[in-house]
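Q: Hi! First time doing this. I have a protein sequence and I read that you can turn it into a structure. Is that right? Here it is:
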Amino acid sequence: MKSAIIATTQLVRCHHSPTKICLESICSSVLDAASLRRLEESVPMLMCNLEKITPPSFFDGMKHLVIHLLYEALTAGLVFYRWMYRFERFLVELKKKVTNKAHVEASICQAYLQQEISTFSSFYFEREIITRRKRPARNDDICEDLYENVVFIFNYSGRGKGVATNRYIVGGKLQIAHTYILMNYPEILPFYHEFRAEFSALPDSEIDVMVDSNFVPWYKYQINSRGIVDPLLVSLSWGPGAYAKVWRSYVINGYTYNTVAYGQGQPTVNNGLCVTTIGYDNSETNFFGVLHEILKFEMPSGGKNLTCVLFRCKWFDPTRGVRKNSKYNMIDVNHSRVYRKNEPFILVQQAAQV
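A: Yes, that's right. Below is the predicted 3D structure, encoded as structure tokens:
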């Protein structure tokens, strides 16, 4: 069955379009005979209404095919068992193998046999030999910095794309990145709860502001005053270096993320991402945003440099800027509603592409 009738909704937005009937009723995994019979009676009226507002040239054979699809579904059963997409794609691949148009069939057979023989032989090659069957996927997460017995914020499988440049990060941006790294290390949580307990009389919003501005120097003072000698905790107190590697594209979690600046003028947009957070009442909130910068920081610890990659994003208001469209089961994001809190960073492991 063809799906060219989808073009119907591209011309006119109809509340009960034939395309909606085909996609939701005919192509479902379970068919209801009674509802299909009712739809079979209403489809001719819908087509007549479309004929009133569209030119005659619009109605070719594919548009009139809608009238017969419901009868076909009632007679032959589930539609997806009769789809021809996979066979048509296979025929296209066979046509590409034709090199001698005087002997089309023999040319296809010869090319197909060569492909079968080479695929079978590749199973006996050495492991280090890369073949079409064993080559990595386009968005494969190649382990860039992976250590044993190291917390997950420094253990990630991902890689930057393109040439990395060095940038000097100073001021509030470096402190915000340092605070976010501390908040994601489990061993820091006792210090974090102790810091909040000292200001428990204040509302949570004011404590959050104090965490952003004062937690890093407070934590460094606690490490020095208590004589803590754990190399990783000491290294975290000093924070990442001011020099960071910057990429414009990064591959992680099976996706490629591009910055907004790099994506301008590109045919595809890969800068949108989503992060799920847990609030004080254990409720989950989805934050939607766009990627502006990819930063890789180094933190020396125990004779080896641990690295941490952060995404700097622009977030949209999760309450007034996000709305769920129940009709299409999609999320509408209002780009004019920007999240006001200065929390732009996330770990690359936490990103999910949208």
